[in-house]
Design brief:
By secondary structure, the protein is mainly alpha-helical. Helices cover about 75% and strands about 5% of the residues. It has a 3-stranded antiparallel beta sheet. It starts with a helix and ends with a helix.
Amino acid sequence: MKQTKQQQVYEYIKKKINSNEYPPGTPLTEESICDELKVSRTPVRDAIRRLTSENLLVLTPGVGLSVSSIGLEDLIEIFDIREGLEGLAVRLFIDRAPDATIKRLHDCVAAGEDAVHHNDFRQFMDHDMEFHRIIDATVRNKRLTSMLDSLYEQINRLTCANREDPEVCRLALSGLHRILKAIENRDRQAAIGAMESHAREVTLVDHHHLGLDVFHIFTAIKILVVGVFTGADRAPGLRAVFRQAITKLGKFCQRIILVGMSSNRHHQ
């Protein structure tokens, strides 16, 4: 079915935002979008209204329209929702997936491993997303798939800056192997645990590379507490990531102390 002009404009702007071609804080105007797309104001206004309702755009009095920023509360919510929804998706997948679909997951992981071996980390991330979308499409739950699609778009805004980072990709690959092994064994609990651990580990490293100090420490502590109750063996690599968080916390505190000392000297 051919898209309407309103839908085309909406999809165009949304893609620009989610790919960070329009980074957070980017100012936008109706005029600039109309000129860029060679369309009238009506479809642009409709797209702006929809994207504002989705919190992708924000209209600030006295400032104007701009791409929304992602705050600490947003990151915590995304982290929690991802863990829960992906755990549910893999549970439903194990109950409903034929062997042929599991073979597709195996091929996907093999292709991802080959991409990492050749240092093609962008290609790996595409295979990683394909792995998750195969699971989502198989559960045959339209509402769950819709929620996950929306979530992955938001995650992409966070992670596109480090899609080619070797550490993130290798950690993600390790998680995919654990998930696949549990799925091949039709072990529902192991698959849920592996999926949730995968989400926690990759999310933590993503936020570390984004330089989100406070959230990084918060997430590391949260992961450690969860690890105590779920078993550290379910999250290989978790300790190393947590050590990175502690190191970052030390540097973060050091900066606060130095700023405080500088401020005191200024007032003296």
